[in-house]
């Protein structure tokens, strides 16, 4: 099933779908906790790390910048997998296709909601890191925005094929758990990857969340977290140059997600 081209979407129609999504999210307490509650819980875990040195950096700031990437899993990935699976199985997607809304409006509205929720969480976390955790203004805000936006694109695209293989909305949480744990443990969110054996460290860098973490930390601290160890200071242009590999990995995952979404995504309930 081919996905619609984004240029076929109407901004006004997408906003109507986005408002519907927000209303339904508010009524579904389980989904609301996943999207909003879990990020708050992970943010609270930063408090005991303040002042502790990890890899030569304040622990709260190091993990906090990792959470800038990790929150994509909750607000974008898990959220969209649940939304698309639930709407497919209760035939809402099929009914919406019978309205004046285009396919791009229907899907784009949900992606818009998820992305807006994530943007609000990322902005709130940046304010918290600066105001309460002894942090700073990002050294390169443009690089940071580009990395987080690229991550949002990748995890939105990956949500389509994962929703396609998820039987019911109730099982969506189980379907995404392996990806969530892999990203949490292997993308450098909870601990630096520098201490891992070389082959394992290189494999972890190919996870879809790893390049977002590398870009976010490089942009925030103005130090090279995308290259080798030591994390030397980098200028604005040097930061972009060091993150080229990370952007290439994101582009690879975006292409793979788009191909899998076009092949597997379905509008009608699964049979059998």
TrEMBL record:
The chain crosses the membrane at residues 30-47, 68-86, 106-130, 142-165, 171-191. Pfam families: ABC2_membrane. It comes from Actinomadura litoris. Residues 22-221 form the ABC-2 type transporter transmembrane domain. It is found in: Membrane. It comes from the Bacteria. Keywords: Membrane, Transmembrane, Transmembrane helix. InterPro entries: ABC-2_transporter, ABC2_TM. It is a multi-pass membrane protein. GO terms for molecular function: ABC-type transporter activity. The keyword Repeat does not apply. GO terms for cellular component: membrane. Coiled coil: none annotated. This is ABC-2 type transporter transmembrane domain-containing protein. The keyword Cytoplasm does not apply. Its main location: membrane.
């Amino acid at each position: 099933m081919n996905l619609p081209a984004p240029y076929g979407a109407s901004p006004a129609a997408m906003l109507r779908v986005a408002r519907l999504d927000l209303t339904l999210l508010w009524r579904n307490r389980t989904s609301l906790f996943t999207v909003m509650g879990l990020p708050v819980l992970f943010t609270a875990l930063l408090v005991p790390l303040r002042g502790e040195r990890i890899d030569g950096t304040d622990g709260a700031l190091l993990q906090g910048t990792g959470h800038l990437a990790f929150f994509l899993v909750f607000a974008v990935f898990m959220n969209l997998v649940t939304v698309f699976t639930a709407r497919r199985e209760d035939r809402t997607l099929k009914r919406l296709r019978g309205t004046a809304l285009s396919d791009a409006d229907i899907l784009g509205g949900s992606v818009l909601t998820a992305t807006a929720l994530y943007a609000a969480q990322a902005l709130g976390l940046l304010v918290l890191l600066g105001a309460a955790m002894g942090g700073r203004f990002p050294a390169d805000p443009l690089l940071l925005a580009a990395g987080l936006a690229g991550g949002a694109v990748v995890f939105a695209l990956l949500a389509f094929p994962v929703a396609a293989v998820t039987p019911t909305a109730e099982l969506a949480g189980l379907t995404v758990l392996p990806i969530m744990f892999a990203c949490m443990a292997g993308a450098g969110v909870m601990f630096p990857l520098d201490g891992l054996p070389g082959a394992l460290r290189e494999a972890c860098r190919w996870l879809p969340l790893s390049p977002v973490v590398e870009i976010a930390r490089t942009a925030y601290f103005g130090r090279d977290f995308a290259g080798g160890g030591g994390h030397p200071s980098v200028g604005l242009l040097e930061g972009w140059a060091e993150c080229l590999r990370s952007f290439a990995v994101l582009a690879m995952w975006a292409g793979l997600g788009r191909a899998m979404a076009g092949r597997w995504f379905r509008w009608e309930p699964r049979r059998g």
